[in-house]
Specification:
Length: about 280
């Protein structure tokens, strides 16, 4: 069980590093923030950006919990597929543009055809099932790197710390724990993981007998991209080793005690080990 999760996260690491390298090859500076977010590298701006993101995630979690509580699982699945169509279009637009910048021969017609095709294909692949796990791992990794090249570094560090605390509280004392318990007690052969993947279609990725939230994948990728942009490949690999070590500790210690565990706190904290290089 653990070996398959580690292999999946190694895939996330590889995808995140490749996507980060693509941004570097395209020589694209930090993308401008839209809406209520602030681009400044200040503690107050980082706090503001973090609070906004936490509020969005909390609202989405509350909505999912209420849908499950009232037996509206079909609405969760429908909303997820629509959301993934929009995200797939946006994410593919960015990365296809980067491929064009580094020299891939892509004209305007091909660009629009590719982005629309991907926006249609991703929800279908998620819904049908056989390719759901690699599709979600890939899209989550690409989304994390995009955020890493958009948000200010100070904001990213604060987000990683805040979501580590948020995840622990929400899993053991909050709505995430209630959602997990609503899926029933732990069952053999990954039955609860499969139920989670089916009920929370697109929000959870099943990996063998376990399941990780898409937020976990995005945060791992975000952290790896942060240190890639700050310290290069060595920083990204050192962060990845911390994430993988934290994941092993989470599975060996926390998961065995409760049957479920927050997948962010220990991996993200250990994944910040490159900060020691900066302090040195």
């Amino acid at each position: 069980m653990l070996s398959r999760v580690v292999a999946a996260v190694i895939y996330v690491v590889a995808t995140s590093i490749a996507a980060s390298a693509l941004f570097g090859a395209a020589s694209i500076s930090k993308l401008p923030l839209e809406g209520p977010y602030v681009q400044e590298e200040t503690p107050s701006a980082a706090a503001w950006n973090t609070v906004i993101l936490l509020a969005i995630v909390l609202a989405a979690t509350a909505a999912i919990y209420l849908f499950i509580k009232h037996g509206k699982v079909s609405l969760i699945r429908a909303a997820s597929l629509i959301l993934w169509a929009v995200l797939a279009y946006g994410i593919s637009s960015i990365y296809i543009y980067l491929l064009a910048v580094v020299g891939l021969p892509i004209n305007v017609a091909l660009y629009h055809l590719a982005t629309i095709s991907i926006a249609v294909a991703i929800p279908v692949l998620i819904y049908v099932g056989p390719f759901r796990t690699p599709v979600l791992l890939t899209m989550g990794s690409l989304a994390g790197v995009f955020l890493g090249h958009t948000l200010p570094n100070t904001t990213i560090i604060m987000i990683l710390l805040a979501f580590s605390v948020y995840d622990a509280i929400m899993v053991y004392k909050g709505l995430l724990g209630k959602i997990i318990k609503s899926l029933g007690p732990p069952k053999p052969h990954g039955e609860r993981a499969q139920k989670a993947a089916d009920t929370l279609l697109g929000f959870v990725v099943r990996i063998g007998d376990s399941a990780l939230g898409m937020g976990d994948i995005v945060m791992y990728s975000l952290e790896i991209s942060l240190f890639y942009f700050m310290l290069g490949l060595a920083g990204a690999l050192l962060s990845a080793l911390g994430i993988l070590a934290g994941l092993v500790i989470t599975f060996k210690v926390l998961l065995t005690r409760h049957g479920y565990a927050p997948a962010l706190p220990i991996p993200l904290i250990l994944g910040m080990s490159p900060l020691l290089l900066l302090a040195w």
